[in-house]
Design brief:
Elements: H1 5-8, H2 23-34, E1 45-50, H3 53-71, H4 77-84, H5 87-90, E2 98-104, H6 112-117, H7 122-129, H8 133-151, E3 155-156, H9 166-173, E4 181-189, H10 203-206
Antiparallel strand pairs: 1-2, 2-4, 3-4
Length: 211
Amino acid sequence: MSNLDFIYKRHSVRKFKQEQVPMEDMKEMIKAATYAPSGKNVQNWHFVVVRDKEKIQEMAKIIEKKHEEVASYTKDEEKREKFTKFLKYFTIFKNAPSVVIVYAGEYKVTALDLLREGGASKEEIDSLLKPAPGMQNIGAAMENLLLAAANMGYGGCWMTGPNYAKEEISDFIGFKKEGYTFVAMTPIGIPDGEVKSPPRKDIEEVMTIIE
């Protein structure tokens, strides 16, 4: 048994039992999320927990409607068909007892202002912003949340696909916070059935050692 078993418990869960997650457990998961590393300790995250089943169903319908709209933008039948196939993955949260939406706040990238004052090229600015350090804070928080959920007997599925409907969803749930935007979401609940993760790349393929 490894001390890292809590990591290997995490899987992407897409089917859930209808039993609701106790609010105290949900708060414990969110607390774990807030202990993620955060550049400059800005903690530029906000978590919205949706527990009303009708609201969760309506969120899925909003995505379905937006999906149809976006699919209609192309005249390429093959491209439209390929995009349409993703809808089932973007709405898998609809049968979960709870959904957590993660919002990201503003983050000032170190050296950005100085590089601009120094006349840095667009390529140099783009290169600095490409790693998106502020968004990395959110990624770390989401991973903490999912690891905590798995270790507590729950499951979730990190989702960014529905982001094209983020404004419509935010309007529907009535959440507004100055400077914050919808960036990811995850259903949270007790897994229904066996869950397996797809195989991982061999460690030698993804690791370089420089000595």
